[in-house]
């Protein structure tokens, strides 16, 4: 029943629209009452017609159809039908409004939650799986609430009103029908308990397949390049088979409910028909009331069957809700006590004071690292892959917090600041340039949303990208497509540099910004970066050591430790790790 508890948590999002929700409930109550009155009203007509026919057959003088009475019955039936269809429209319309608005609020909450979560969560989870929770899981809940909620509520109320009407018609027959209801409920509980884990497995398998597909589409060119199509297809088939197995098991088990409940319903029909006919022959039950009773048996069993058929949808929604609330219940970034703020402009002094850090407590990555950076200095961070270069920058940006020691900006421990207060002083140019679907102008303006068009163009000019933009169709008005594939990688890099220029940060971080471009673009990017770094404290992560020879301080990292530090010339004189790395790159360049 865990899935049902998760669905119940959705009330938090529906209660904001409780007025419309209760109108929908009221409409459903009218719908159920109108439905419950139908057999009774028809029974009145049948009883009167059979009585009139009997009088005619017996030849009673003046016998005939009681048309005035039958007309009243037909008018009552018509009024009941108006209430039935009107309340059905009202309940469905208002519920659709409530569900759509509630799910909109849920999506907004998920978006806000994602922006409050630590980077570590996204390092451990597939982006495709997260997207699956935001899209297909919410769709599953929306469909279940819109399709099932009214039907389930109408079914429960229909059963209750039908039982009341049966008790008024014949107490003994009513008891027979009531006795079959617990049997149907017991069957439903057993089937739901057996299938719930399968529905959760199905939702997880769908998210896994979604994530795998998204990763393969992102790396489509590499898969083609290395001839890994067959491997990709095999892995897709394996995950797809896993989804099929979970889906089949969940659907098969839940589909058993309808025939089993139907068997119980048919048993109730047989008993009512046999015993009801006996009462009718004895004259204790009219033909009209027997017909009404048979219809009430249908009104009890049909909702049970309908609810059992909807159990698959409800259980899918329960599993989806579980995955969504699992995301919403994830711990957020811990801020700690905010004790101070930074001035509008900082000088740019940065100090790593005996810091230690680990992604996993059992495997420390950094221990006792200390570095002092003066305002306006350019600091280069070099080392092999996995040395801890990007981690050091992530700690400075507070994407992760240090386990021990402190990092200070202008003498202020960054843990005493809000993350937003800290990060507004930083600009970052990453190796993987990020642009989004919008015009070139709006992509550049992302660095400073209130910037004028002239300010954007000036920033692009500094970043050596203005000339290129003007050669594009529509220039700054050209729309970048969803994958930003209609411009080259180097051009993306120059645009992100222009965005950083526009933001005018106090401290700059360049994460291997020239590692994936050709020599001509590297020169343009390097010139742009030199302009941006001028007068700013800068941290540069680079593989091409030729680009950092003018750095004020070079940190050489390996396995999370700073093994050497100094200027380019001093490190060459030491003849250590940096000298070997630089000479190997220089030799490779000469040989080329």
Could you please describe the fold and organization of this structure?
The protein contains 20 helices and 10 strands. By secondary structure, the chain is of the alpha/beta class. Strand 1 and strand 2 (366-373) form a beta hairpin. Helix 3 (18-58) runs antiparallel to helix 4 (67-116) and helix 6 packs antiparallel against helix 7 (171-218). The radius of gyration is 36 Å and the shape is elongated. The two termini are 67 Å apart. The relative contact order is 0.08.
Can you summarize the main beta sheet?
Answer: 6 strands, mixed
Q: What is the CA-atom radius of gyration, in angstroms? A: 36 Å
Shape type: elongated
Number of strands: 10
- Structural class comes to alpha/beta
Calculate the mean pLDDT score and round it.
82
What are the low-pLDDT stretches, counting only 5+ consecutive residues below 50? 588-592
> How far do the termini sit from each other?
67 Å
Order of helices and strands: HHHHHHHHHHHEEEHEEHEHHHHEHEEEHH
Residue fraction in strands: 5-15%
- Give the helix level as a range of percent: 55-70%
- Total helical elements: 20
Strand neighbour order, sheet with most strands: 6-7-8-3-9-10
């Amino acid at each position: 029943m865990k899935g049902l508890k998760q669905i119940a948590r959705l009330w938090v999002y529906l209660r904001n629209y409780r007025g419309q929700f209760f109108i929908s409930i009221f409409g459903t109550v009218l719908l159920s009452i109108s439905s419950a009155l139908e057999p009774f009203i028809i029974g009145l007509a049948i009883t009167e017609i059979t009585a009139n026919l009997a009088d005619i057959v017996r030849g009673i003088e003046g016998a005939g159809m009681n048309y005035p009475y039958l007309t009243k019955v037909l008018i009552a039936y018509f009024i009941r039908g108006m209430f039935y269809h009107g309340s059905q429209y009202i309940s469905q319309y208002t519920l659709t409004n409530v569900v759509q608005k509630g799910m909109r609020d849920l999506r907004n909450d998920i978006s806000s939650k994602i922006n409050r979560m630590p980077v570590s969560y996204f390092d451990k989870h597939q982006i495709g799986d997260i997207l699956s929770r935001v899209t297909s899981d919410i769709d599953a809940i929306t469909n279940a609430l819109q399709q099932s909620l009214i039907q389930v509520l109408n079914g429960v109320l229909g059963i209750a009103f039908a039982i009341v009407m049966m008790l008024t018609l014949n107490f003994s027959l009513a008891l027979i029908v009531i006795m079959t209801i617990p049997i149907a409920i017991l069957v439903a509980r057993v089937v739901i308990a057996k299938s719930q884990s399968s529905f959760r497995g199905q939702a997880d398998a769908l998210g896994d397949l979604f994530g795998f597909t998204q990763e393969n589409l992102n790396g489509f060119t590499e898969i083609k390049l290395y001839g890994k199509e067959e491997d990709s297809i095999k892995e897709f088939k394996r995950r797809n088979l896993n989804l099929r197995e979970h889906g089949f098991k969940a659907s098969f088990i839940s589909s058993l409910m309808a025939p089993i409940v139907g068997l119980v319903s048919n048993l109730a029909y047989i008993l009512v028909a046999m015993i009801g006919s006996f009462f009718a022959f004895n004259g204790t039950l009219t033909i009209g009331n027997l017909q009404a009773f048979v219809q009430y048996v249908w009104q009890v069993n049909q909702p049970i069957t309908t609810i059992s058929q909807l159990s698959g949808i409800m259980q899918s929604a329960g599993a989806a809700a579980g995955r969504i609330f699992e995301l919403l219940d994830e711990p957020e970034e811990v801020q700690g006590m905010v004790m101070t703020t930074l001035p509008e402009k900082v000088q740019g002094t940065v100090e790593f004071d005996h810091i230690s850090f680990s992604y996993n407590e059992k495997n420390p990555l950094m221990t006792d690292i200390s570095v002092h950076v003066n305002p306006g200095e350019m600091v280069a961070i070099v080392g092999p892959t996995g040395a801890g270069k990007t981690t050091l920058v992530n700690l400075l940006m507070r994407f992760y917090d240090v386990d021990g020691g402190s990092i200070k900006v202008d003498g202020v421990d960054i843990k005493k600041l809000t993350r937003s207060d800290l990060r507004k002083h930083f600009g970052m140019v990453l190796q993987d340039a990020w642009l989004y679907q919008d015009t070139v102008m709006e992509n550049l303006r992302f660095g400073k949303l209130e910037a004028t068009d002239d300010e954007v163009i000036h920033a692009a000019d500094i970043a050596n990208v203005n000339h290129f933009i003007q050669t594009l169709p529509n220039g700054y008005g050209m729309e970048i497509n969803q994958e930003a594939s209609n411009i080259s990688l180097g051009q993306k890099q120059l645009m992100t540099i222009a965005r950083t220029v526009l933001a005018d940060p106090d401290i700059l971080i360049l994460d291997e910004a020239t590692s994936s471009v050709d020599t001509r673009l590297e020169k343009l990017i390097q010139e742009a970066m030199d302009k941006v770094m001028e007068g700013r404290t800068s941290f540069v992560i680079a593989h091409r050591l030729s680009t950092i020879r003018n750095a004020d301080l070079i940190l050489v990292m390996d396995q999370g430790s700073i093994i050497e530090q100094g200027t380019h010339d001093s490190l060459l004189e030491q003849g250590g790790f940096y000298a070997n790395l630089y000479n190997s790159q220089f030799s490779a360049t000469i040989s080329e």
